[in-house]
Amino acid sequence: MRAVLMAGGSGTRLRPLTCDLPKPMVPILNRPIAEHIINLLKRHGIFEIIATLHYLPDIFRDYFQDGSDFGVRLSYAVEEDQPLGTAGSVKNVEEWLSGTFLVISGDSITDFNLQAAIDFHRQKQSKATLVLTRVPNPIEFGAVIVDADQRIVRFLEKPSASEIFSDTINTGIYILEPEVLRHLERNQEADFSTDLFPLLLAEGEPIYGYIAEGYWCDVGHLDTYREAHYAALHGKVKLDFAYQMISPGLWVGENTAIDDRAKIVPPVLIGHNCRIGPRATIESGTVIGDNVTIGTEADLKRPIIWNGAIIGEEAHLYACTIARGVRIDRRARVFEGVAIGSLSMVGEESQINSLVRVWPSKHIESGAILNLDLIWGQTAHRNLFGQRGVAGLANIDITPEFAVKLGAAYGSTLQPGAQVTVSRDQRSISRMVTRSFISGLMSVGVNVQNLEATPIPVARSVVPTLGVVGGVHVRIDPDRPDRAAIEFFDDKGINLSKGKEKKIEGAYFKEDLRRVQIDEIGDVFYPSQTLEIYRSCFEKHLNLEAIRYSNAKVVVDYAYSVSGAILPQLLSKFGCEAVVLNASLTQMVADADGREALLVQLGRVVEAISATFGAQILANGEQLILADEAGGLIRGEALTALMVEAVLAAHPRSSVAVPVRASGVIEQIARRHDGRVIRTKCNPTALMETCRAYPNVVLGGSGDMGFIFPELHPGFDAMFCVAKLIELLAIQERTLADLRADSLPRIYHKYFTVRCPWTVKGALMRHLVESHSPSTLEMIDGIKVHDRARDSWILVLPDASEPLVHLIADSPSREWVELTLRDYRQLVQEFIARDRGIEEIVEFENRVLA
After folding, report:
1. CA of 235: how far to CAs of 239, 267, 448, in Å?
2. Could you read off the pLDDT of 776-797 as tens digits, one per residue?
3. Among 493, 584, 821, 849, who pairs with 460 as Cys (CB 3.0-4.6 Å)?
4. CA angle 836, 839, 845 (to 5 degrees)
5. How far are the Cα atoms of 128, 184, 512, 738 from residue 200, in angstroms, in the given order?
6. pLDDT tens digits for 610-627?
7. CA 806 – CA 795 distance, rounded (Å)
C-alpha cells in the first residue's frame, strides 16, 4: 500500500519559524514533523511514500533524499507554479496510485492506528474513508456528522461558532480508492473537503468516517506547536525519540556535557553536542536542540530551543520558541508565547514580552523592551474578522499602526490601480483610523474615493455608481461605544464573503504586502455627488405623492450621529415636517442607560406634539427604534413583525428574509398575505446575500439588525425605512398603533443566554444533534428543535464572538416557552458541568505531571 504525504505547506501561522523552512520540516523533539509521520507509516506497514511539495521543496528533498536512510522509498511531486490544493496535488500523482492508498497531511502529530482505519475502510467497502477525531473546539477544523453506521451525512469546512453541529472533526488523513480521483481535473486546484468529498456525498458514493482513538494535533499555531512537544514528553503521544533516555524522563544526546551543579526537572530532552552551564535550571517540558549552549544560571521554563542556539548567563526563557542559531545574551528575558526567528540576536538585559514575534535575522539592542512584533504592527491576532468586519477596542486594538497594515493587506488582495471607497462616522477615532487605513491602501497602489463622514447606507448605495471594486466603512461599534469597527463590502455594497475575508487575513498574517514604485502610489479623490446619488435613488423607490399627501410629522432622534443630518433634509423635500432631537455631533451616547433615556425622551416628544411617529436612528444609519403616536416604543421582534406586515400588505405574494432566530409570528403574517418567509443565518452578510440571490424579496432583516430594501441597495437602511413607513401608512390609511396591533398575533418569544466555554460548544452541539430525531431539527444556524404539533420551536445558537450559547424559544403557549427554556437551560448547564469536570481533571493531571 502507498501513502501520499502532503508536504507542501508554508506554515503561515507558524511565522516567523517558517520563513525559511517548510512547515513539515519544523522540528518536534528535534526531528521534522514529516519524519514522525514517516515513522508512523512504517509502524503500520507502509513503506512506499509519495511526497507532494510546493514551498521550499529542496529543503525536504535534501533531508530525506530517496528515503533509504529512513527505511522507506520516497518519490516526489513538486507543484512548481502554484499550490493545487489537497486533492489537486494528489490528482497529479494519479498514475502512481494503482490500488487503495492513504493520504496524510505533513503538518500534524498523531499516533493513530492507521491499520485499524484501513481495515475499517475495507470492511465497509468504502470509496473514501476520513479519519476523524473529537476535539473540544472544532472552529479551526472541518466538522463532520456520521450516522449510526459511521457513514458521513454532513460536513462543514471550518465552521463559524454558530455553525458548529459536532465536535467530530476531519484530521486530514484519508484512505481512498483511486477511482475517486476521476472526479477531478488534472492541474486544477481542488480540495478534498470543499470539492471532492461533497461531490461524492451528493452522488451517493460510500464515504465513511473512522473515529480514531489516540492523540492528534494540527500544528497550526505557535501555541499548539509547543503543546505537541509537551504532550510527547509526557507520553501522551507515541513518538520515536532520537536520543537515549539516561534516567526517567530525561533524554540526552551524544557528546553533551551537563555541569553537575545544573538542576534538571524531567521530562526534558537535550540534543547532541550541547553544553549546560553551572547552576542552570531546566524545568519540566523543556526541549533543547543539537549544538546548543546554555550559560551559567540560565533559567529555562518549558522553552523549545532549536539547533545551534546560544543562551547566555542568567537568561530567563518562559514557554517560548527559539529558532535555529538564535543568540540570547546575558540576563535577557523572553516571555511566554514569544517566537524568535532563526539567526536573530537578543541583546543583554533586553526583554521580549508575551506573544511577540521576531522575524529571522533581527537584532534587538541591549536593554531594549520589545512589546510589538519586530517587523511591523502589534501582536498578531489569530483571526481578524468577526461577524461584521474587524472590530476591537478603540486605540488599543484598532490603532493607526494596525489600520495601516490592514489597509495594505486589503489593498494587496486587489489589482494595482484599483479604486475603493472609504467612509466613516464623525468620531475622532474613526477619522484617525480612516486616515491610517487610506495610507495603507495608497502604499500598495490602490486609489481611494474618500467619502469622509457619511452614513453607511449612503456609502453602500453609491459604490456601484463610482466604478470601484469595494468599500470600507469605519465607525464606532453599534453595540460597544468603546470599540471601533471596520466593515468591508464588495462592488455591489454587500459585506465581503468569508473567502475574501480569509484572503485579507492571509495577506495580513503572512506579511504578504505589495510594495509599489513611487510613481505607482495610490491617490485620493473626493467625489462631490455622493448625496445627490443617494437622494436620486431614494426618491426613485418611493411613492412621493403618497408621502406628500400624508402631511406626516416625524420626530427624528439623531442620537448624536452623522446619519441624522441627512434624513430631515430628505423628509422636508417630500413635504413632511421633521422635528429633530439630539443633533450635536460633539456628544456621544455613553452606555445603554443613556440610550434608554433618549428613547424615553423620544416617546414623550412624539406624544406631546401629536406626531405621526418617532424614530431613533442608530448604527450610523443602519438601525432604528420607533415610537408610535402615543409614545410607545417599538423595537426587536415587535418591530420585525410590524415591518413585515406593512410591506407584505403592500406587496402580497412576495418574499421576506429574516434571521432564523426571528419569531414564528413572521410566518403567520406571511400566510395571511400569501407571502413566503426565507430564514437565514443570524449574520448581516447572510441576509444581504439572500436578498440578492432570491427573486421577489421585498424586505430583509430584523429589528435588531435593521432592514434591507433590495430594490434600493443591498445594505440596511434606517433612513429609507422611515420614509417607506410614511408612504405605507398613508396608502394603507393606518396609524403605527393600528399597524402594530394588526401585525402581532398572540405568540410568545423569549430568550436566555448561558455561559459556555469555547471548548465545550462543539461537543454540546453534537450531543443535541444525536439526542433529537432528525425530523425535528433545522440547522440553518445553530440547532433549532421543532415541536410541530404545537407550532413551537427552541433555537440553541452558539455566540460567534463570546463564550455564550443563546436559547430562543417561540410558541403560541407561554407555558411551553417557560418550560422549554427551563429544560434546555438545565440540559446545557448540566452538559457543561460534566464536560468541564473532565477538563478540570485533565488539567490537574497535567499539573501533577509537570
Report:
1. 8, 10, 56
2. 999 999 999 999 999 999 999 9
3. 493
4. 145
5. 9, 11, 35, 54
6. 999 999 998 888 999 999
7. 8
